[in-house]
Amino acid sequence: MDITLLLLLSLFIVGFLYASVGHGGASGYLAVLSIFAVPVLSYKPIILILNIMVAGIGFIQFSRAGYFKWKLCWPFLLSSLPMAYLGSMMSVKGDIYNLILGLALIIPVVRLLGLIPGEKGKKVELSLPLALIFGLVIGFLSGMLSIGGGIFLSPLLIILAWANAKEAAAASALFIVLNSIAGLMGHRGDIHFGQDSFMWFTSALAGGIMGSYFGSRHFGVLTVKYLLSAVLALASCKLIFFM
């Protein structure tokens, strides 16, 4: 298969699967580009724009399906947005950036494989102080890595029994949109679309549109989730051990 076609197909699959759980997919897109030896630092602003669009579509779909709860989102946003902006302005060396991103990719792999505890039968009330603290940390990491932070927020909401899976997806989608906008503000003047990046953008966006629809209303892509786990695990190893 042509390498360009394989890259586009990989971005489509990543967009589909991430959007199906309310995520924008930035960490997945960065992982795919890393596997194909594309210099990801050059495309961080474009990936943030894609993140905003895909997560925004996901937010609309999950909200229409009745899963969005504002109380699960605003405390994290309050503390994360300024930190996402500050984090995006940090100049991180390529090898350090690759190491941090490689470690961050372990989180969606663990979640996709079902190793993170599932949603609790009984939910508890969200703790405002804890949410504000977690928002600070997630916001800073999101800005520094040029991702939306959904890979951190949604497992957190489920593990602490603050939300079920689809409520977490809906809250994460809005969180990703706004944090990606805050992070993008730190990259003003660095946005450049080339012919290749336009094709990548279109492929991932198409996957995201389809994934958000099926994820909010039908959901069921277990086999491909395992394939995505393998891709992300491979990218994580490449980023950490072969920088």
Automatic annotation (TrEMBL):
Transmembrane domains' residue ranges: 29-60, 72-90, 96-118, 130-162, 168-186, 198-216, 222-241
Topology versus the membrane: Multi-pass membrane protein
Extent of the signal sequence: none
Protein's UniProt keywords contain Membrane: yes
Keyword Transmembrane helix carried by entry: yes
PANTHER family in UniProt: MEMBRANE TRANSPORTER PROTEIN MJ0441-RELATED, MEMBRANE TRANSPORTER PROTEIN-RELATED
Full protein name: Probable membrane transporter protein
